[in-house]
Each structure stands twice: as C-alpha cells, then as structure tokens.
Amino acid sequence: MTELGTRLREAREANGYSLDDLQNMTKIQKRYLMGIEEGNYEMMPGKFYVRAFIKQYAEAVGLDPERIFEEYPNDIPVTNAGDLPELSRVQSRKPVSESSSKVLNIIPKILVALFVIGAVFVVWYLLPNTFGNDNAGTGNDQEESVDYSESPEVQQPEDEDEETAESGDSAGSSEEGTDSEENEENEEDAEEPAEQPSQEITVAKVSGKETTYDLKNAENFNLNIAASGDTWIGVYNSKDEQLFSQMMKNGDSESFDLSEDGEAFIIVGNAPAATIKVNDEQINYEVSASEVVRQDIIIRRSAQE
C-alpha cells in the first residue's frame, strides 16, 4: 500500500464511509477504489482515469485534490495526450478555421446590405424621372400657348385649349399616382427582413457509447451542462484543449461559449445525472442513459447557410 493510499483510506474511515458508500457517492467501481488504496493502478483503464478517480476519491472524503497531487507526486501517474486514445478521433478531424467561420458569419449581413442598397437605388432612379416628365409636360403646354397667341394666321379655339390642358393634367396625375404606388411597394419590400432558418440538431453517428451530433442554422454555439446528481464532466474543444474537468454535484451548472470554435467533445461520467443544452435546446441521449452510464458526446457546428 502506498502513502497516498493510506492517507485516502484513513480519511475515508474518519468520515465513517465504507467502500460501498464511496462507490455510491462517486460512481467509481469498488474494485477501482480498492486499487487506489492499495496503489494497484494496472487494473484501471489508463493513467488519465487514475488521476480522475483519485481526484474524485479525495473530494468525496473532504481532501483537497490539488494538495494531494502536490504532496504525493510519486504515487500518482503522469498523463499526457497519448493517454487519451478516445480523444484521438477529435485530433484527426480537421478543426474549423477561425477565419473561415468569421467570413461565413459575415456573408448573410453583406447580402442584406446589398439588397437594401439596391432598393434605395431603384427609388433614387425613379423619383428624378417622375419629376422630369411632369416638368417636361408643363413646358410643352406653355410653348404651344405662346406660339398660337403670336401667330396671326393660326387661332386655336378656347375650348380646345381647355380640353388639352385638362387631359394633360389628368395624365400627369395618373402618372404620379402610379409612380407613388411603385415607390411604396419597393420601400415595403426593402423593409421586410429575410427570414432566418431555425436551429436544427441532428444525429450524425452513433458508435458504442459515443454519439456525434450536427448543429445547423445556429448563429451562436452556447453549451450548458446542468447536474441533477453526482457526475464527472470533461469538456474539450476542437483542438483537444481542456475547458473543464471536474466532479459536478446536484444543482451545479456550467456554461461555455464555443461560437468561435465550432466543436465540442464532452465526457459524461454519469449520464442520467447530466443535462446538456445547446443554445437552450436540450440534447437527447441516443444511447439509453440507463444502459450506458458513461457517454461521450461530440457536437459539430456546421457553417451557417
């Protein structure tokens, strides 16, 4: 038995916990708890889980895990990226380029701006033509009346002049009314915003305890994890950078903004006690949480269309 194992066992007994009690609290199998106390780590899945189990054990018996790691460095295996074989699938996928994601987010705004500019140009083009036609008609009427009054040989009846003036006025009014209606329609079209498609979360792949989801039509990528019981949670981004690794208890909640990254890898130690939401929409486990306690969740955000 190692010094670390002795320290942990003494703390457990001081709290009045049996190995069965500790198993129910941490969801760690009893044989692994015995292996930690005896310093026998070969039965465990890997070094990464040894450190995680020791941390959960220490928290359950009221010890500070960080201080335990500092006091007993020789009794705790050192982990590295090679100790996480299941995370290698995340590394093999090509990470979403940050610059490409920003460009794709800007494209819809550019299209809307071009549409508004086009509508303004149409209004600007039609208004001068309308006023120009009205002014031209008025000038012609004045010119014709001057020619008839100066010529001694040609005299136009007064009734005919009045009819011509009235028809010209009515035509001008009709033209002006039509152009006004067209301008109003163009302005209404320009004010109507383009409808945005609603968010969609679909299952892309299910393999054992691992499920991959595709997130589509989402302007943001906000991840929220809430615990309704004791569960260990690990959260990583597309570059395998650890964002969170901790034991969560009933009532605990953690949020992450992955809008600039576009991908998340989540390890849930006790799936029935964890609720995962993306942009306030809950993710449903494809693998029954009552059958598979630990589940690995991958969420990939597609480029916005």
Keywords:
single chain; 305 residues; alpha+beta; 434 Repressor (Amino-terminal Domain); 3 domains; 4-stranded antiparallel β-sheet; elongated
Average the pLDDT over all residues and give the rounded result. Answer: 77
What is the count of distinct domains?
Answer: 3
Strand order, sheet with most strands: 1-2-10-7-4-5
One letter per element, helices H and strands E, the order comes to: HHHHHHHHEEEEEEEEEE
The radius of gyration computed from the alpha-carbon positions, rounded to a whole number of angstroms, is 37 Å
* Broad structural category: alpha+beta
Task: Give a brief description.
This protein has 305 residues and is α+β, with helices and mostly antiparallel strands.
Task: Show the helix and strand layout.
Blueprint: H1 3-14, H2 19-26, H3 30-38, H4 47-60, H5 65-71, H6 88-92, H7 98-150, H8 158-191, E1 200-207, E2 210-216, E3 222-227, E4 231-237, E5 242-248, E6 253-257, E7 263-268, E8 274-278, E9 281-282, E10 295-301
